What does this fold into?
Amino acid sequence: MLIALLRLYARLPLPLIHGLGILAGWGMYMFDVKFSRRVRNNLLSINIAENERHYRRLVHTSARETGKGLMETFAIWFRPEQSVLKWVRACHGWEYVDQALAQGKGIIFLTPHLGCYEITSIYYAARNPITVLYRPSRQQWLTPIMQQGRSRGKVKLAPTNMGGLRNLLRTLRKGEAVGILPDQVPESGEGIWARFLGKPAYTITLVEKLANTTDAAVLLAFGERLSWGRGYHLHIAPLAGPASPQNMNDNIERLVRSKPEQYLWSYRRFKIPPHTADTRPAD
It folds into this structure.
């Protein structure tokens, strides 16, 4: 029944979906104390707002964009694939994909929590297979919905366990693509501390290991959300420099600064995983 309702919802026009998202974002900000506190604290603790007025505007626009991201996710998961692809108005940087494929290289797509990160894999999978690393939801009812929604076209899923990691390695060695959320906080022992927006952030080392082992091309992918429900612009660019955790964070930071209101500031990016506090550098 829930899947059927989501399929009906997904047929709404994108401007209406984003309008509902704005309402959802304001609702979360007004009534979810943890959400609003995290957005304010994250934006207050980093050097990204130009002044107090800019800070307040970022807090409010971030809440709206987060709501849009929530509501568009279910639509992207359950709307017919060809209809979703029509929402992509332009793709900048596809030549880097063609270049990697022509060289027979695998591709590691780094898609941070910026803009619409659900649409990037669907766009790529309309042409080529891609395996996306995902962390199963803590809410058991959501896991089958997420799996069904994300397994679209040529998209395959790999969970964040040893089997999933071996799957990523095999995929890259075949010259295919994988997708990774590079700013997702890893478990203890799976990352190191690196600076992000001026603060220590526990950062995955997986990307560097995969890149060094397979000589895969590492590309950043960002789905820019256009205003008024007009769709999305996809941006693809090579990672500038090595795939080390610090350099990866520096690259992501430049992307975030280009569209700070579309970053997921409600995410606990700077949390301290268990057994890592002793190694965390000072702010």
The two ends are 48 Å apart (CA to CA). Strands lie at 88-92, 107-110, 130-134, 155-159, 177-180, 191-196, 199-204, 217-225, 232-238.
